[in-house]
Automatic annotation (TrEMBL), chain A:
GO biological process: cholesterol metabolic process; lipid catabolic process
Keywords: 2Fe-2S, Iron, Iron-sulfur, Lipid degradation, Lipid metabolism, Metal-binding, Oxidoreductase, Steroid metabolism
Subunit field text: Homotrimer. The two-component system 3-ketosteroid-9-alpha-monooxygenase is composed of an oxygenase component KshA and a reductase component KshB.
CDD domains noted in UniProt: Rieske_RO_Alpha_KSH
Name used for this protein in its record: Rieske-type oxygenase
Keyword Lipid metabolism on entry: yes
Matches recorded under PROSITE patterns: RIESKE
Automatic annotation (TrEMBL), chain B:
Full protein name: Ferredoxin
Species whose genome carries this gene: Planomonospora parontospora subsp. parontospora
Amino acid sequence: MTAAETERDGVRTIEAGAVPARFARGWHCLGLSERFKDGRPHTVDAFGAKLVVFRSGDGRLNVLDAYCRHMGGDLSRGTVKGDEIACPFHDWRWGGDGRCKKIPYARRVPLRARTSAWTTMDQDGMLFVWNDPEGNPPPPGVTIPRIEGATRDDWTDWVWHETLVAANCREVMDNVVDMAHFFYVHYSFPTYFKNVFEGHVATQIMKGLSRPDARPPAKEGRPGMLGNTSVAAYHGPSFMIDDLTYHYEGMDIDCVLINCHYPVDADSFVLQSGIIVQRNERLGSAGADEMAVRLGAFILKGFEQDVEIWKNKARVDNPLLCEEDGPVYQLRRWYEQFYVDAADVAPEMVERFEFELDTTRPVGAWKKEVEENLARRAAAGGGTA
Amino acid sequence: MTARPDERLLDGPPMSPVRCRACGAAVRARKASWQQTSIQWSAEAVETCLERRASVPGDGPNGDLFPACEALRESIVRAALDGELPVPDDAGDG
Ligand code: FES
Ligand SMILES: [Fe+2]
């Protein structure tokens, strides 16, 4: 065997099966609920369909398949009339439960006049829909935890952003376990990293330092950022709540960051971020609002850094991992539970798994890299970045 | 899209059985280094764990998280020190 052949045989191939044909079972956030409450129908492309979101006269938020079962009119271009959405084509009236309630020009509504309706939940300022390909309601215990700060005066309002991403949503899930990318893609500096998967919840615990080489020095009179402590958990397949504290010189800032998405189709998803910041004496009331806006923009930039990677990368079912990588395969095993029928959820998908990463080696390498970057900046007469 | 096995378990140490010295819960654990630990629990082990049972939910939206059992952590360290749980040599580092 020649050397070339040996090498050839040892070539690692990237394997990738088709993206899943169905959409995850679970609660998905469609955005801040306020924007759907203007009495007009809204179009949302999600779960491979076109949905209509509308608030009925009784104040409830409803989500239906947008295509009218009569002749296919687009209900999201219709009008809210009382408790129903009226189709712009022939004025059939559809209720939030998916049933046609009335056809003004007909003596009676035909049998089978029923369309798909999604279970909705309006909680802490966000609209959620329950997606289940099997059509079952959410089981008890499968909930989105309450976020106290979202309804409290000593916290800011949500600063919310959304972005359409042309990739399968598994890419965003992988971030849960991907410690190293936080250094290389997001210019942060993880020093502690642990994952816990259990039931329908996947958690990432991370502590990090700020990167003096990646940001200009703090402005005069503004405290410099030292680092952060984060406990971030996916409650189901798409909604992550990050209990996040930024450590500044002389103060801590407590935030709750939402990182969530809903699939548009198999190859794209809408990625959303929301942040609220707790007001404190040092920050002042206006300071907290300003901080929320600034952090919101900062997090959006983080998303853009991810998106830049995702739109150019390959989908990989067999990532090649070193020991300093997180538990990618175990995360995907956990994630799989949302793509099989409820009866087929295997114990290993939901059984508790813990992974605590040894950051000794990465931290050493990254310290060196940061120092080199700072030295290079200084040599270039920098500091004014 | 069935999840595949983690090749690191074939190329490095496998998951090995460890028992908690406090409650007897049987888990599988793996150490990739002295500081790096994976723990695979079963539903039965979770039910057996005393610290888990005694834990109260913390504050905040992720307060239900049970971050770790200290007794199990110590048991794993002991298993590693006693040579029952392999810990790869650091010599090959770099
Ligand atoms: S298509 Fe909707 S009423 Fe005819
Ligand atoms: Fe990322």
